[in-house]
Amino acid sequence: MSNQPSDAIVFFGATGDLAYKQIFPALHGLIRHEVVDLPIVGVAKAGWTLEQFRARAMDSLARHGASNDEACGKLLKLLRYVDGDYNDPATFSQVKSALGSAIRPLHYLAIPPSLFSVVVTALARAGLSENARVVVEKPFGRNRASARSLNAILLEHLPEGSIFRIDHYLGKEPVQNIVYTRFANAMFEPLWNRQHVRSIQVTMAESFGVQDRGAFYDSTGALRDVVQNHMLQVVANLMMDPPTGEECEATRDQKASLLKAVRPLDPASIVRGQYRSYRTTLGVKQDSTVETYVAVKLFVDSWRWAGVPIYIRAGKALPVTATELVVEFHDPPRAVFDASAPATGHVRMRLSPDVSVAIGLRVKRPGEGMTGEPVELTLTEQTAANTPPYQRLLGDALRGDGELFGREDIVDAQWRIVEPILADPSPCEVYEPGSWGPAAAETLIAADGPWRDPLPSPRG
Q1: How many CB atoms lie within 10 A of CB 48?
Q2: Which domain holds residue 357?
Q3: pLDDT tens digits, the chain, 460 residues: what are they?
Q4: Is residue 247 part of a domain?
């Protein structure tokens, strides 16, 4: 595969929700901020004309706050449209014609995984996979076996360096800031190991339910939806060793090494919950056993992290919407002052909805006695208004930069971690909407807890 940037974009599933909600705004941003100027071919089977496709794009941009600026007009001129069945070779002949003189296309598969094989094989037969890159959307498989099968299909027609497995969470500025904060500040490195870290907590809380995604969610669940991918990637960013070298593979090598050392989950390491009104949601089975909440306890079997427990919880219908990481440090080896005081030494990284990094300490309470109180010192705080993840990732894919995308061995390692509990999951415990989930989650963390609950955003 050439190191040159792609000279065209083809996105399959062009009339779907993902295109409407993410891809059109991302393309607009790339045109506006990075002066992207190349053919953009949408492909779908909707019976649409090019004018209908352009109208859909403009409606998307209007809904997402894009003004009718020069970039909007340029996007409309760049758009082309092919309406056809993915099983029909004629569709791909039309795509080839629509590409014109472009010879290094980026194919974006915003389609269900069941169609990956059909489309990739058809691209190869039409001569459209040579010098091409392919972006595939999550979910990348439903388990380790299906992910390996998808990889085999893709690798049959494309080299690994031309495959971009997207996880939009990796494109978020606060997630990248985890790595930057760790490795740009030498003060953290001596502390970032089992000698000093007592435990790690990761919380991804959402105050809303599954809303209109009932059918999708009931076939997925919290473990597959956010833990197997987003949360494990966050853990990799937080715990990996420093990259050696500046190439994108240096970072992915360290992530892979960390994830391959994570001990697979077992039934004693997971709590599953379902909020009480979930089964009344449209598209959800009346006897559903799918979890809307999951808490897991992980260990990394490496020299640096041996014995340090990592707790991850993610759920819907919880008290707040926020994502936070907390690294808790050991107590001093001997209490010099107030021996009964709870431990407070920690680093807190808040990823959403606002962004901050804070250090928790105990300081002396004013007065004659040597007693203390906990305080948090906020290091940085900034708005979460950054480059949208899809814009960042699509731009990286066009340039052939795979650092923020899943690599074959990384995806396989993530599935390996959760594989043991997918086939025979533990029962779901019902919890009340607005609570912090099942009581069993408190038992899971009892030896190292309690859970550190994120506070509501100060911005409301």
Answers
A1: 17
A2: 170-384+414-444
A3: 457 999 999 999 999 999 999 999 999 999 998 878 999 999 999 999 999 999 999 999 999 877 778 999 999 999 999 999 999 999 999 999 999 999 999 999 999 888 988 999 999 999 999 999 999 988 788 999 999 999 999 999 999 999 999 998 898 888 989 999 999 999 999 999 999 999 999 999 999 999 888 998 999 999 999 999 999 999 999 999 999 876 778 999 999 999 999 999 999 999 999 999 999 999 999 999 999 999 999 999 999 999 999 999 999 999 999 999 999 999 888 777 776 666 679 999 999 988 889 999 888 778 777 877 888 888 777 665 568 899 999 999 999 999 999 999 999 999 999 999 998 889 999 999 999 999 999 999 999 989 999 988 765 5
A4: yes
Q: Which of 191, 197, 256 is nearest to 408 (CA)?
A: 256
Cα 358 to Cα 215, 373, 376, 380, distances in angstroms: 39, 16, 6, 7
Please, is 47 exposed, middle or buried when counting C-beta atoms within 10 Å of its C-beta (0-12, 13-18, 19+)?
A: exposed
CATH number at residue 258: 3.30.360.10
Would 457 be classed as within a structural domain? no
As given in the structure block, the two tokens for residue 187 are: 């003060």
Sheet containing 270-275: which strands, arranged edge to edge?
A: 372-382, 355-364, 346-352, 322-329, 197-205, 310-315, 293-298, 270-275, 428-431
Q: In one letter, which amino acid is 48?
A: W
Cα 296 to the center of its chain, rounded Å? 17
Instruction: Examine the residue annotation and report whether 230 is marked as an active-site residue of this protein.
Output: yes
Same domain, 175 and 115: no
User: Hey, what amino acid is at 87?
Assistant: N
Which residues have CB under 8 Å from 186's CB, separation 6+? none
Q: Are 279 and 285 in contact (CB under 8 A)?
A: yes
Q: Are 291 and 355 part of one and the same domain?
A: yes
Among candidate residues 107, 157, 168, 230, the one labeled active-site is 230
Range list of H helices, 185-328: 214-218, 221-222, 232-239, 248-260
Token readout for 76 is: 């409309």
CB contact at 8 A, 450 and 301: no
- Strands 40-44 and 79-83, sheet pairing: parallel
CATH of residue 81: 3.40.50.720
CA dist list (Å): 438 to 21, 112, 315, 418: 33, 32, 10, 20
User: Do both 115 and 182 map to the same domain?
Assistant: no
CA distance 369 to 193: 34
Residue 284 one-letter amino acid:
V
Q: Of the residues 137, 155, 179, which one is the last residue of a structural domain?
A: 137
